[in-house]
Design brief:
By secondary structure, the protein is α/β, with parallel strands linked by helices. It folds into two domains: 27-123 and 248-317, D-Maltodextrin-Binding Protein, domain 2; 125-222, D-Maltodextrin-Binding Protein, domain 2, CATH 3.40.190.10. It contains eleven helices and eleven strands. The chain has helices spanning 2-24, 41-57, 72-79, 93-102, 138-147, 162-174, 186-195, 205-213, 261-275, 278-286, 296-317; strands at 30-34, 61-65, 87-92, 114-123, 125-129, 153-156, 179-182, 200-204, 218-222, 249-256, 290-291. Strands 2-1-3-10-4-11 form a six-stranded mixed beta sheet, with helices on both faces. Helix 2 crosses helix 9 and helix 4 crosses helix 11 (296-317). It is globular. The N and C termini lie far apart (64 Å).
């Protein structure tokens, strides 16, 4: 009887500890790594969410921009952090799906090395040109590129990023020669695009929309399957003659593999609550982003499916990076 009583006490103590741990998380600052420089879509979407979570938790959520290597440097740092939920990374279809097949020596595995918290949102990419480019439509751009091979160049946030892959798909389907100029992030790429150093770019909606609205850039098409709600008059690339073209970008929250289940569930519940708030939904909609806020299981399934999808695209394009 005495042994049974001791066993019960041990079990209750363990359960109480688990419950207490979940209830007290977080009890010190949380780091949210954005694996790209300031000014891009990840950074734009991360900051209001981090601010809302800081208020909800009563603890700072510190956004750390750690760019480089198509998002791989910051993502790898998150993979190697302590699996306690206090280091998160705002990953993308690039960092967690595309890079898997694109890089020969990726220092992490986008599926195996992470626990998925939720997918935050999905955004279209938008094909934009400097206003000095004569083309006013996708077909006009293709026609100019064909009659002036190699004369046009396009910017990307870096080798292997979703906009880079999206532009390479465009080149393949349109059968045009356009020179790639990689940058260290969306912000620097947009600066040179507006300055006329480069001619065009496929960029994520949150980053390019302000410049489209201010007429510093001209939007020609969306990469989404259907027209984005924020720009209902903008045709898709598929509508513009590149049948079947689709290359959206999703953003998700990940933490190092092995994080306690109760912490993952707590993070998911709080992220979902913040993402579904009227304030965040309105902000995301204004950026052309559609809130997803799904379960860890559903988010993980999407990541795994996109690893396979982009592997096929990368193999077809014969793209590999060191």
């Amino acid at each position: 009887m005495k042994r049974f009583t001791i066993l019960v006490c041990v079990v209750l103590a363990a359960l109480t500890g688990v419950s207490s741990g979940a209830q007290t998380f977080p009890n010190h600052p949380v780091r949210l790594i954005v694996p790209f420089p300031p000014g891009g879509g990840t950074d734009i979407l991360a900051r209001p969410v981090a601010e809302a979570l800081s208020k909800k938790w009563g603890q700072p959520v510190v956004v750390e921009n750690r760019g480089g290597a198509g998002g791989s440097i910051g993502t790898d740092a998150a993979a190697k952090a302590a699996p306690d939920g206090y280091t998160l990374v705002l990953g993308t279809v690039g960092t967690h799906a595309i890079n898997q097949s694109l890089y020969r020596k990726l220092p992490y595995d986008g599926v195996r090395d992470f626990d998925t918290i939720t997918l935050m949102a999905n955004t279209p990419n938008i094909l934009v040109v400097n206003p000095n480019v004569v083309a006013k439509s996708v077909q006009g751009l293709i026609s100019f590129a064909k009659t002036h091979p190699g004369q046009l160049n396009y910017a990307s946030p870096g080798n292997g990023t979703p906009p880079h892959l999206a532009a390479e798909m465009f080149k393949e389907l349109a059968d045009v020669s356009v020179t790639h100029v990689p940058y260290k992030g969306t912000g620097p790429a947009l600066t040179d695009l507006m300055g006329g150093t480069v001619d065009l770019m496929i960029g994520n909606a949150p980053a390019v929309l302000p410049y489209v609205k201010s007429k510093k850039l001209r939007a020609l098409a969306s990469t989404s399957e259907t027209r984005p709600g924020i720009l209902p008059d903008l045709p898709t690339l598929s509508e513009s003659g590149l049948k079947g073209y689709e290359a959206d970008t999703w953003y998700g929250i990940f933490t190092a593999k092995g994080t306690p289940v109760e912490t993952i569930n707590k993070l998911n519940a709080d992220f979902v609550a913040v993402l579904n708030s009227d304030k965040i939904r309105s902000f995301f909609a204004a950026q052309g982003a559609e809130v997803i806020a799904n379960s860890p299981q559903a988010a993980s399934r999407k990541v795994r499916a996109d690893v396979q999808k982009w592997k096929t695209v990368i193999d077809d394009l014969n793209l590999k990076l060191d």
